[in-house]
Amino acid sequence: MPKRENYISWDEYFMGVSLLSSMRSKDPSTQVGACIVSDDNKIMSVGYNGFPRGCSDDEFPWERSGEHTNDTKYPFVCHAELNAILNAGGHNLSGSRIFVALFPCNECAKSIIQSGIKEVVYISDKYADSEGTRASKRMLNAAGVKLTKFKSDNKELKISFNEEDI
Q1: How far apart are CA 134 and CA 126, in angstroms?
Q2: For residue 165, what is the DSSP state?
Q3: Stated pTM of the model
């Protein structure tokens, strides 16, 4: 019997892990996941956007706008990229790739560069015209980090927990 031919690519697999991780986020407006992968295709770490450990999801704000900055989620939420870097537990991330649905902000770009990640693979760059994203691209390009727009012939992957599908 010949091997199955309709399997997913490495990039589809890692982006799928990133998207699955994003489903852990409790953010009502934006869910982002990240998956960091070594150059020999081993998953080094994953993360998603949320509040730091010990900061209750019920006591900190999820709002996108408010009278004061501290009435919004922005000063409190850790982005998926930073969480994935921190979740790596001190492992050397030099030369690795990070898979994210949303292009990294300027703060995450700093952490990506400092951790030695050499490639960012992303699906959406919907904030491309923002000051933060322009700063992010400037730093990533200056540091020699490769920026790759994710491409796939698959528009979606199905995951089923139904016993009959296994």
Answers
A1: 12
A2: G
A3: 0.93
